[in-house]
Design goal:
Layout: H1 2-31, H2 63-78, H3 86-103, H4 108-126, H5 135-138, H6 145-204, H7 216-223, H8 230-258, H9 263-266, H10 277-319, H11 326-347, E1 355-358, E2 364-367, H12 369-378, H13 380-403, H14 409-415
Antiparallel strand pairs: 1-2
């Protein structure tokens, strides 16, 4: 029986310590604001009327006396053998309630948890736990709050490392794809010039039927004749120049596709690679499409979600708004960002080119698949709201079609 009474007393003391820690944290937070926050606090009643300031709790004394009374109760709480009167406990609970209203959106719990996270971050940075000057009254520590703060601090450190690694990989892949697109676009431009040049030369050949793509051996023989008119000579010179440019661009594109082990192997072009030029162009187009529309969007989606999580963590850290669920919620948001980036390829039409939207000032902004994936990762909640609206629209439209009097399964299958 005595043991049960002692357990009840210890649980009551733990509750009082917990409330006292919130009051101390709120007083410290409010007193550190630029604008005075402790001079006048109001508590709305259920009817919406204001009853006054917290000094009424101390018997019509000033707010300074209210703070002094909270400190006196704190001294009693610090003495483990002293008993706390019920009126003092009620005062602490009401004081915490009023201070939470004044400090909103921050609360005593979020302030304490943020302080624990800051302590854990500095402990990870210095590899040594600093001496805790606060004590159990100023910062209430229990079996789950402090481990949660340590997990969040380790998660933030891990997120920063992952962000640096992914940024490096993503930048290298982006540069690689940009070079491939440059070579591919240059080859397309050279092919257009080559077709125009061959079309003109075909019309000048007296022994061949004019065609848009004459035999190159005939063109070489035609340009090798002597003498040639000035116009024919100029077009033959353009033909040789375009031919040389085409071979150079194909060599660069082939090296880009094959990915040699060292940069020295890429320049000059290694002619031991015996790959047909059309095969090279097909491989280049496939690689650009896969990396640009599927791999890079996933990476940019993760980077966007990581950027949002780190930015939110930094803001909540400054505003003392961190909670123990921050780590789990951030992990979920990062995974959703990766999923959003992976699904961009389902909605992004590569053949239609980059999407254009109206930017600041009405100017057109071009968004590639990677840019859309980054925005999707950064604003995961907005993406899923859009998907919910699309889902409702699609299935509600199908339901309305089925409810139409003239709708029938046979007619629907015929239309399909």
């Amino acid at each position: 029986m005595v043991s049960q009474d002692q357990d009840a007393v210890s649980e009551d003391r733990a509750f009082v310590n917990y409330v006292m820690a919130d009051v101390y944290a709120l007083l410290d937070f409010l007193s550190g604001r630029a604008k005075p926050s402790l001079g006048y606090l109001t508590l709305p009643t259920p009817g919406g009327q204001v009853t006054g300031d917290p000094s009424a709790l101390a018997g019509d004394e000033t707010s300074s006396a209210f703070v002094q009374k909270a400190m006196q109760i704190g001294k009693q709480v610090a003495k483990s053998e002293s008993t706390i009167a019920d009126d003092d406990v009620a005062f602490l609970i009401q004081a915490r309630d009023l201070l939470n209203v004044r400090a909103a959106p921050a609360t005593g719990n979020s302030i304490i948890f943020t302080l624990l996270v800051i302590d854990a971050i500095h402990s990870l940075r210095t590899d040594a736990r600093p001496k805790n000057l606060a004590g159990p009254i100023y910062v209430f520590r229990d079996a789950w709050l402090e481990p949660a703060a340590k997990r969040l601090a380790r998660s933030v450190k891990c997120w920063l490392r992952i962000m640096a690694f992914l940024l490096t990989i993503t930048v290298l892949l982006s540069i690689y794809v940009a070079y491939g697109k440059l070579f591919f676009d240059t080859l397309d431009a050279v092919n257009r010039d080559n077709r125009a040049n061959l079309t003109f030369l075909a019309t000048e050949m007296p022994d061949t039927i004019p065609t848009t793509d004459p035999n190159r051996r005939l063109v070489d023989n035609f340009c090798g004749e002597d003498p040639l008119s000035f116009t024919k000579y100029q077009n033959c010179q353009d033909y040789y120049m375009i031919k040389e440019r085409r071979n150079d661009v194909r060599a660069l594109l082939r090296n880009w596709v094959i990915l040699p082990a060292t940069f020295e192997e890429a320049l000059p072009f290694d002619k031991s690679y015996d790959i047909h030029s059309e095969t090279v162009e097909q491989l280049a187009a496939a690689r650009i499409g896969v990396i640009g529309n599927y791999i890079l969007p996933v990476l940019y989606g993760i980077i966007g979600s990581l950027g949002f999580v780190l930015r939110q963590f930094n803001r909540n850290l400054a505003d003392r708004l961190l909670t123990s669920r921050e780590s789990r919620a951030s992990h979920i948001k990062i995974m959703l960002g990766a999923m959003s980036g992976a699904c961009i390829g389902l909605f992004f039409n590569n053949s239609a080119g980059a999407a254009q939207v109206s930017g600041v000032g009405g100017a057109a902004v071009t968004l590639s698949a990677s840019a859309i994936a980054f925005l999707a990762g950064y604003g995961v909640e907005a993406v899923f709201k859009s998907l919910d609206a699309l889902l409702i629209h699609v299935f509600d439209l199908n339901r309305r079609n089925r409810d139409h009097p003239g709708y029938s399964e046979g007619a629907a299958s015929d239309r399909r």
